[in-house]
Amino acid sequence: MIEPRGTSRASRMARWLACGLATWMAVPALAQPADLKPFPPPAAGQQRFVIRVSAGVDEDARRVQVLVGKTVEVDCNRKMFGAPVEKRTAQGWGFDYYVVGPFGQAASTMMACPPGEPKRREFVAALTPELESLRYNSKLPLVIYAPTGAEVRYRIWTAGAVADAVAQ
Q: 98 with 131: CB under 8 angstroms?
């Protein structure tokens, strides 16, 4: 992208960051702010994670991808978990929230790893297509209930400029 003359470096960096992809880690909600009043407390064996996104210029051009998983020891093979996700509505309020069930047994590819390759700890996300593309809304928190010990991370996706298709 060619910037007009006189565009500051900070302005160019801000534009670049706005078009990029960001990843954050959600933390369990400890206090009960007013915007969490509609949502039930977590059940036994669950934690409540709250994601609050900042106000954006065009929120319809953004989406939130939620990754629920845990950090486990891995080798050279690709690992993944399965976990059921249920979308629920806060009774009397109409606000949606998501409940992630217990993780299934970790599935893994079965490649032979190179001899002597050390194992490492890595975040492994559960396959949860229901949480792949959620509406970006800075006015309401995004509330996720996950099993105790789970980690919740998220990404903000931003759409690029609209392009015209060429008829052929």
A: yes
**For residue 11, what pLDDT is reported?**
47
Predicted local distance difference test score (pLDDT) of residue 21: 45
Q: What is the pTM of this model?
A: 0.76
In one-letter notation, the amino acid at residue 67 is: L
Question: 74: number of CA atoms within 13 Å, CB side?
Answer: 20
3-state SS, 95-116, equals: CEEEEECCCCCCEECCCCCCCC
Burial 13-27 (b: 16+ CB within 10 A, else e): eeeeeeeeeeeeebe
Q: Reduced to 3 states, what is the DSSP secondary structure of residue 36?
A: helix
Mind listing the pLDDT tens digit for each residue in 114-153? 999 999 999 999 999 999 999 999 999 999 999 999 999 9
3-class secondary structure, 19: helix
Amino acid at 104: G
Q: What is the DSSP letter of 13?
A: H
Per the CB < 8 A criterion, the answer to whether 57 and 35 are in contact is no
Tell me the C-alpha distance between 90 and 92, whole Å: 6
Task: Name the residue with higher pLDDT: 98 or 23.
Answer: 98
